Amino acid sequence: MSALRSSFTFLTDNWRQAAADGADAGLAQEP
Amino acid sequence: MRAPPPVVRLGLRRLLSSLDAAGVVGVFCVLMVLPSGVTRLASSDTIEPAGLQGTVSVLQIRGPSDEQPHPVWVWRPPGPDSAAIPVLYFLHGYPGAAKDPFAGGLARMLNKRLQAGYPPFVFASIDGNGERHPDTEWANSGDGSELVMDRVAEVAIPAVEGTHMRDAAHRAIAGFSMGGYGAMNIAMHYPGAFGQVVSIAGYFVVNDLSEMFGDVPSVMAKNTPSAHPWQARGLQVLLDEDASDPYPLIGGQAAWMGGLLRKYDVPVTVRVARARTTGPTP
Question: Which helix or strand (DSSP H or E) is residue A9 part of?
Fold first, then answer.
């Protein structure tokens, strides 16, 4: 279960990063 | 009934006049604290982070080759579902069942993470047991009689996501042991379906004890992730292994597969942990 718990951190960090990248890309496209 | 003596009447009058004054002051304070147009929320309208918890449900699905229903245990965070909430699909080992992580306290762990402020995601644990082959390897059999991979990709995913189907960036697949092999194998067979793969104590070679692949070389090659590592392009990969894993099938696989993936520029993290408790057999 500890491996699963640490995998949640890996997954969540990547999801957070993807969301931040998406937000940045959206801002970059603003006129 | 006799009237109270004058001293008591005076005390009552003073008490009532004090209460009147307190009431006036109280109303004044409320008017000062709440700006006009703002309504105080009822206690039921506020969210207490410490009280946040998800719900567990069990779906029953049938894959294309299934004659019996197979369970999918799902933990969902509170609030309405949305395609912006990621979903993690989990594949158990062998022997194993969909409820295994929940029997190990998974819902409690996910509730604690939620209460600690981690972003929510849906967790879905699928049944990978076969009806004709006990050890399915989460694969489709060569003769098409046991389609467990299709149960996952074509039936479980729509059953969990419903009208809020996720894109790859919001969908991950993870597994333990046989499920770790299955997670990588399925993600490679369905490019663009998943954005992340986690293999815990997995392997990346064929371990076909129930003759799912019928010793047919082309079928075995298709189901050997290490034979075509470039098919993991587009995925972010975590390979997790216990350094003291007693099974020769598993020991060293994470580092080996990690090296193969890096040759094709697949972003991979390899974690080899020391002395962790092992789970069921592959």
Answer: helix A2-28
pTM: 0.82
Q: Give the other-Cβ count within 10 Å of B201's Cβ.
A: 30
Neighbour tally for B188: CB within 10 Å: 22
Provide the 8-state DSSP code for B120: P
* Cα B64 to Cα B125: distance, rounded to the nearest angstrom: 19
Burial status of residue B154 (CB atoms within 10 A of its CB: 0-12, 13-18, 19 or more):
middle
Q: Which helix (H) or strand (E) holds B4?
A: none
Provide the sign of the torsion angle of the four alpha carbons B204, B231, A4, B267, taken in this order. positive
Is the previous residue joined to A31 through a cis bond, with omega within 30 degrees of 0? no
B118 interface with A at CB cutoff 8 Å: yes
pLDDT digits (tens, 9 = 90+) for B166-206: 999 999 999 999 999 999 999 999 999 999 999 999 999 99
- Give A-chain residues touching B169 at CB under 8 angstroms: 15, 18
The answer to whether the beta carbons of residues B239 and B197 sit under 8 Å apart is no
ipTM: 0.85
